[in-house]
Design brief:
6-stranded mixed beta sheet; 7 helices
Amino acid sequence: MNGYKKIGTEEFMLAIMNVAQEKLFELYGKQCVMIDSTDGTNQYGFQTTTLMVHDENHQGMPVAILFSSRVAPEILVSSFSAIKKKVPGFKTNFLLSSDTNSFPNAWREVFGDETNHLLCAWHVMRNLNLNINSKVIQYKEEIRIKLKIFLAETDETSFHKLISSFIETYEAKESSFVAYFQSNYINRTKKMGFLL
């Protein structure tokens, strides 16, 4: 692709945003834009990346879709740049995505640094569950329940008390998981959208 040296000529990309989606993006995207990718959903091995917004009833609506041979910052930057050409002054308060740097880094490169990145609770819980299964020896179900409780907490003071209690309770019993949790999430609680 011209202007995008890191995108090879053999790579596939198709980004779609129709006029109705553009209007929905402008109308509902000011508060929050959500982005997610899936793979392995078609016989060609293409990745599908969807940009969504939600209306006043919190119903999600796709506003752009990208089919590509891979999801990488350079692919996302080219797609986001095409969107910005359609909606040049667009700004959103929050970008909600899975626990990856590709989405927020590409978004900020195109739309600026003012957007706050939030972690999708479903992806956070999925990552935690994977690590519970691989790192927790004895207290798997108990830890799952505790995590769900504090991940559902919307009061920031209570949230931090629950985290402190969780760490204190399991630091000696399940040190491997607690170390993972502390290194991956403890300094990023502001990215957990349920505290808004």
